[in-house]
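Hi all, posting the design record for the shared folder.

TITLE: backbone redesign
STEP: 1 of 1
STRUCTURE INPUT:
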């Protein structure tokens, strides 16, 4: 569904500081990263939520999906990590899904409108209607270091 070509500026900064200074990176969440959806283009401004428009529901519950550090990701090449299992969002039961999902976003927090953006990638625009479900198949969400 999407290939993420790199980290946000914030994440790149944290990685460099972790390995080349005495500033250790501490995960905000000890067990998971969270995958979310956006109908707009996220920006790279230090990992903020600028440009992210997540679905909102009046009658159903959109939620970012937890992907475990322990089992949710597979290093498939020396420079690439992919989702190890399908990531399935809840079936749309409300009318407030964005007309088109255009980005997949990886966050460090589970709560909508919270946390920092780790990475984001454009995906094939996907219209989601009531009764439909967004599913990211195993091995198709890829993060590549170059």
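Okay, here is what came back for every position:
SEQUENCE:
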């Amino acid at each position: 569904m999407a290939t993420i070509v790199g980290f946000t500026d914030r994440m790149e900064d944290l990685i460099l500081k972790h390995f080349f200074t005495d500033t250790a990176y501490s995960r905000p969440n000890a067990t998971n990263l969270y995958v979310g959806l956006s109908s707009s283009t996220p920006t790279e401004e230090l990992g903020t939520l600028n440009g992210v428009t997540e679905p909102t529901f009046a009658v159903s519950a959109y939620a970012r999906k937890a992907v475990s550090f322990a089992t949710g990701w597979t290093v498939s090449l020396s420079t690439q990590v992919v989702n190890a299992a399908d990531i399935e969002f809840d079936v749309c039961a409300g009318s407030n899904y964005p007309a088109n999902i255009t980005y997949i976003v990886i966050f460090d927090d589970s709560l909508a409108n919270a946390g920092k953006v780790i990475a984001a990638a454009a995906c094939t625009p996907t219209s989601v209607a009531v009764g439909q479900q967004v599913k990211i198949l195993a091995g198709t969400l890829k993060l590549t270091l170059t």
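COMMENT: Residues 2-144 form one domain.
Let me know if anyone wants the other runs.
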